[in-house]
Amino acid sequence: MNTFGRLFRLTTFGESHGKAIGGVIDGCPPNFAIDFEQVQKFVDLRRPGTSLLFSQRQEQDKVQFLSGIFKGKTTGAPIAFVIYNKEYRSSDYENLKDLYRPSHGDFTYEKKYGIRDWRGSGRYSARETAVRVVAGAIAMQILDKFGIKVFAYTSQIGSISLQKAYTELNLTKIYANDVRCPDERLADMMRQEILKAKQQGDTVGGVVTGVIQGVPAGLGEPIYDKFSARLAYAMLSIPATKGFEFGSGFSAVQMKGSEHNDLFDIDERGNLITKTNNSGGIQAGITNGMDIVFRVAFKPVSTIFKEQQTVDRQLKKVRYRPGGRHDPCPVPRAVPVVQAMAAMTVLDFLLLRQKDGLMIDVEY
Amino acid sequence: MNTFGRLFRLTTFGESHGKAIGGVIDGCPPNFAIDFEQVQKFVDLRRPGTSLLFSQRQEQDKVQFLSGIFKGKTTGAPIAFVIYNKEYRSSDYENLKDLYRPSHGDFTYEKKYGIRDWRGSGRYSARETAVRVVAGAIAMQILDKFGIKVFAYTSQIGSISLQKAYTELNLTKIYANDVRCPDERLADMMRQEILKAKQQGDTVGGVVTGVIQGVPAGLGEPIYDKFSARLAYAMLSIPATKGFEFGSGFSAVQMKGSEHNDLFDIDERGNLITKTNNSGGIQAGITNGMDIVFRVAFKPVSTIFKEQQTVDRQLKKVRYRPGGRHDPCPVPRAVPVVQAMAAMTVLDFLLLRQKDGLMIDVEY
Amino acid sequence: MNTFGRLFRLTTFGESHGKAIGGVIDGCPPNFAIDFEQVQKFVDLRRPGTSLLFSQRQEQDKVQFLSGIFKGKTTGAPIAFVIYNKEYRSSDYENLKDLYRPSHGDFTYEKKYGIRDWRGSGRYSARETAVRVVAGAIAMQILDKFGIKVFAYTSQIGSISLQKAYTELNLTKIYANDVRCPDERLADMMRQEILKAKQQGDTVGGVVTGVIQGVPAGLGEPIYDKFSARLAYAMLSIPATKGFEFGSGFSAVQMKGSEHNDLFDIDERGNLITKTNNSGGIQAGITNGMDIVFRVAFKPVSTIFKEQQTVDRQLKKVRYRPGGRHDPCPVPRAVPVVQAMAAMTVLDFLLLRQKDGLMIDVEY
Amino acid sequence: MNTFGRLFRLTTFGESHGKAIGGVIDGCPPNFAIDFEQVQKFVDLRRPGTSLLFSQRQEQDKVQFLSGIFKGKTTGAPIAFVIYNKEYRSSDYENLKDLYRPSHGDFTYEKKYGIRDWRGSGRYSARETAVRVVAGAIAMQILDKFGIKVFAYTSQIGSISLQKAYTELNLTKIYANDVRCPDERLADMMRQEILKAKQQGDTVGGVVTGVIQGVPAGLGEPIYDKFSARLAYAMLSIPATKGFEFGSGFSAVQMKGSEHNDLFDIDERGNLITKTNNSGGIQAGITNGMDIVFRVAFKPVSTIFKEQQTVDRQLKKVRYRPGGRHDPCPVPRAVPVVQAMAAMTVLDFLLLRQKDGLMIDVEY
To answer: Interface pTM (ipTM) of the complex?
Structure first.
C-alpha cells in the first residue's frame, strides 16, 4: 500500500531518520528524455532549511537515480531513485519514544504494527513527500508534451484568505515567494500570520488550491475511479490534509440547480466550452476539457513548542515539550506536493485512456 | 473500474433504463447468516417513489440473490444479485439524445466512449447506487458482529444547517423522517427548503454527515491507502458529490495547533481516548479508536424543470426543457448510500488488518 | 479473486446447482457490435448433453445479457450476463454431503471456508467455465478485428497422441468432431479411448494445444507479468489442469543452446521472422510476432463410477460410489475454455500496450 | 508490472550493468527480527563467479538495507534494499548493440519500448533474480516460524534425470554441491553434462523440482488465483523457463481416474492425509495439507560461444559471436530463485487467509 497509481505507479520507501528515502516509478513512458536539473529544482522547492517559514533541518535532498535510464532517456524499466538522509538528530526524539504525542501517528502506528520507529516520526514523517515530488516532477515533464500544465498555490493561511480566482492570478509567479501565493500582497500577510504563530510556539493551517490546464475531455473511469474520486484520494494521502473539494465544492450546497449548472457554449474557435466552471472540469466523474480546479485543507502542524499533556506507553498521563525542528505551517512546502500528486493522477488517467491513442502523437 | 474495494469487493453493473442493475460481492466472509429482510429494508430507504421529496419513478427495487449463499449462509463464493428495472419511460429522453444536458455526463461519456446510452442517463444515472446499498447492508450486518455501527444523516439542505453535533442527536431516529435528519425541527425546515425549490422547478444541494462508531484503533494503510484517503475516494465516487472533509475538516484551516491537537487522556475504564476529536478518529491515516466523523457535500441535482440553453451533438446551440422524473434534492436518498460506502470501506480495512485476528473471535 | 484480467476483466459468479451462473465484463472496448449468435454458438461448444463423450446433464446454457449494450453495441459500461441453471439433480449429491470425495475440492473448500455447498460441487464445479466461454467469445470477436486468431485443439487423450505439428493441421476443422482434434483419424482413436474408459466406469486425461496467430510483437509486461507467465496463470486456473508449457516446453530441457536458439531471418516480404519457433512466440516474456504455441495438461476426471474408499467429515473411513452425471474425459469440453482464456489474455495485453495506439486503427 | 504479490509485495528495479539492482518489499509482517546473515548467505547461493558451472562475472552481491527496519526488526514500513553492481564490462556488448541476438529479449524489448539498454541485456538480464532471492530469504525466515519449509533442487540436466522421488532424498544436502542436486552421484553426472556443453561453447537446460512442506490446508483463492495458478505464474516469471507442472503433472495425461485419485486416509495421529499425492498438495486450487510438489523446465542459455547468423536493426542478416560472461546452464543458479519465488507465493497466500487467524499464533 506504499504504491500510488495504476499504470504510472510510484512505490516509496524510507523513514525520516533512516539511511535514505526513495522510490521506484514503474510504468513511466519509455524513450523520454528527463530533464534531471528541472527535477532537482522542483525537489528543492519543498526542501527544508531554505526559508524562515520552513523547518530548519539542513538537507540537500540530492536525488540519485539508480535505474531505468539509458543515455538520458527512460527505457520503460522501473526508475529507482534515492535521497540519502544527511542531517538528522534522533536524539531530539529520545524523550518522546515512550509517549504518544497528540495528533501524531505515534499511537496509531504502534497500535497497527506493534512496533514504532520513533526517530523523527519514522515512516509517517512528511519527509516521505520528498519522494513524491521527484516522481511528480517527471510526470509534469511528460504532461508538458501533451500541453497539460499543473499548478498549485497557497490560497489561505489561517484566517488570511485569497479572494481572487485563479484566473486573476499569474500562476507562473507562485514560487516567487516562500509562501507560494502568487498575490504578493496576500503572500506578505500570510507570511506574517505564519511568523506570528511561530513566535508563539504555535502552528497554523491553510488551503492549497490546485489548477490543471489542458486536460483533454474524456479522462476518468466510472464508477468508482472517477477523476474526482482519484484526485481526492491522492490529496488526502498527503500528511496533515483534512478535506478536499473541486469546482464549487462545499459552496455548491447553498446553490440552486439553476445557478450551479454550467451551461454549454461554443467558443470563438468552435470548441465546446462551459460558461461557468462549477464542475471544476469534471462531470459525472470524467473530465470535460475545462480547467480542473480543486482545494485541499491542511490542519496546523501538530508539533507545537508549548508544554502539553499527553499519555505514555504505560497509559500514564505525562507532560511533554517537543524537540526537533518543524514547520510552523505545513502549507508552503505542501504546495509542490499537491502539484506532484495532481500530476501523477492526471498522467495515470492519460495512460489508461483507450481512445485517440496514448503516447503516439508525441515526438519526444 | 466498476469494482470497489480490495478484499471486500463490489463489482456493479446496469443502466437506469436497461434490463437490470446488479452486483457481485467477492470476498465476503463465509459462514455468515445474512438477514435478507433487513437488506431489503435498507434498500427501500433509497427507493424512489416513496416520498414527495424523491423522484416519482415507481420501482420496487426487489433484490434477487443468484449465488454465494447456501441454506441462508454465505459460502465464500461470490454473491451475485440483480434488481430488475420495472418502470421506466425512455421516451422521456428521446428529445435529449442528440444534445448535451448541462452538468450531466452526456458530453463526457460520449467523449470518453464514442457512444452513449441516453436512456435515463444510462450508466451514469444515480440508479447505480441502489446496488451499493445492497452490498453496504450486508457489510453493516457483518460489522455489527464486531460492535461497529455506521450512521449517516442529512446535516444541511441549502442554507438550512444543523448546528448540533452528532453527539447531541439520537442517531437511531435518522430514518424517522424522509429528510433523514434526526432533529425533527430542522428536518421540517429542510423539507420546506426542498419543496420550495421543487415548486420553482429548481433543485437544491446539501451535506451528509457520517459517523462510524466502534472502529478499533489500527485500521488504515500507509502511505497512500490512508483510512481518510480511502474514505474520501469512496464518498467522491457517489454521484453529485463535490467535497469531503473529516474531523475538523476545512475549519481546521483557521485553528492554531494548540487548539487543534487532540490531547490524549485515560477514561474511567482505563482506555486511552482523546479529549477532543478534531482528528475525526483518524491520525496519520490510521484509526485511533475514537468515532470516525466526516462530511460530504452534494451539489443540487442538474435536472431542473426550466428551459435552459445548451449545445447539441453538432455543436449547435439549442434550448431544451427536460422530461423524466427526478429528485429535487440528491441528499435524502444519498444518506443510505453514504452509509453503505462507509460500511464497505471499514469492512475492507478490517479484512486487511493483519494483527489481532480477523473473523476468528466472532461466533456467527 | 473471482476476477480475471487487468484492463479486460471478467468477474464470474454462480454454483453448479444454484439459480444461475454468470459474469460481468469490465473494460470491454466500447462501440463494438457483438455478434450474439456467434457468442451463443461458441458457448454451445462446451455445453453438456450434446455428445456421448460429455456429461449427460441437459442444459440449454442460454446466455442472457443484462447490461452494457445499447442498440447492439458495447457502451463501455460493464457487460453483465447470466445463464440460469435449468436441469440439475441435487439429490444425486445428498449422500456425498458428509464425506470428502477423493481429488475433489470437498475437503479443501470446507477447510478454507468452514462451509461447503455440496450440490454438484458448488462453486468448484467446472460449470463455472461456461461463463469464461461467453467472455472469451466476445474477446475473440474483438481480436478478429486486429487480425488475431485463437485456436485450441485436443492433441492427446490418454496414450493416443497426435504427432503432427499444428502447421500440418487444418485448424478450421477443430470443431468438426466431438473430440476437437482436427485430425479425423486420431480423433476416432481418441474417441475410442474415452469410450473405453467410460465403459469401465473410469476416466481419462489429455492435452490441449493452443495456437494464437497474428499477435503483434511487443505484448507482455516485464518482469512478473510476462506474456508466458500470465498465459500459464490463465491456463492453470482451468479445473483439472496439471501443467503448462510453451514453445519447446519441457522438451527444451534436453536440447543444446545451439539447437534451441531460434535464428532470426527475413521473410520474402521483408519482415523479421525466426527460422524455428522454440520460443513459442515469446522471448524474454514479450511476444516476437511469431505464432504463440502452448500445451496444457489435464488430469482424468476425479468422479469415477467405481466404489472407492474415502473419509467423512468425522474423519471416519467410508466407502462410496458417486452419483451425478459427469464427463469421462475433461478435454473435449475444455478446448473452448482454453481458447477463451487465451483470447482474454491476449486482449488484456493488447489493451495494456502503450505504443502504436490501441483501438484507434480499427473501424468497427 | 515490476511488482510481485498481493499482500507480500516485491517491487524490483535495476539493470545488469546499471548502477544498482534492488527492491522494495511492502507488506512484510512487522516486528520480525530478520537474520541478515542468513539473507546474505542465501543470496550468495546464486552469486556468479563461485563455481566453474557459473558465469565468471565477479560480483559480491552485497545487500544493503535502506529502510523498514528498526533495531533489527521489521516495522511494517517498506523494506528497501540495493545491491550495487561492481564488476561489469559493457564493452563486451558494444558489438551487439545494433543487432538482435537469437532467443534473447533484444528484439522484443526494442519492439515494446522503442529503446533498449543493450549493456549486459539490461533489464531482461537474469541478474534481476538476485533481488528476488533477497525477498525470498526473508519470506522463508517468516514461513519457518509457521513450520513451513521450502525446497528446490536440480532434478534434471540435459538428458541426466534424477529418478528418485523427493521423499528418497536428503533435502538438507541440496546446496552441498554446485549443481544443487542432493544425490551426489547424479550431481557428478550432471556437472559433467554441463562442463561438456561448456567446452563445446554450447549450453544445456534442465529441470528444477520444488517441494513445500508444512503448508496448512485451505490456502489458495478460487477461481482464478488458485494456488497452482499463482505458483505457475511465479515460476514462469523466472527467465529461461518453458514449462510448469505440479503433482502428477503432464504424466497425469496417461493415467486413469482410478489410478490418479488420491484416496483420503487417516494417519496414526488421526490427521486426514492422502495415500498418494498426484494432486501435489493442491486440490481444486486450494492446498490440502500434503506436500506441495512441482517442476519447472528451463531451456538452455541462449548465449552460446559459437558463431550464429542473426539480423541487425536495419533488418540485414549478419553473423555474430557473443562476448560477455555467461552460465553454461541456467539451472544451478536458478535453484534458489525457484525457492524464493515459491516462498513468496506461499507467504502471500498465508497473509490472505481469512480464517484461523494470521500471524497471531506466532511469538516473534
So the answer is: 0.96
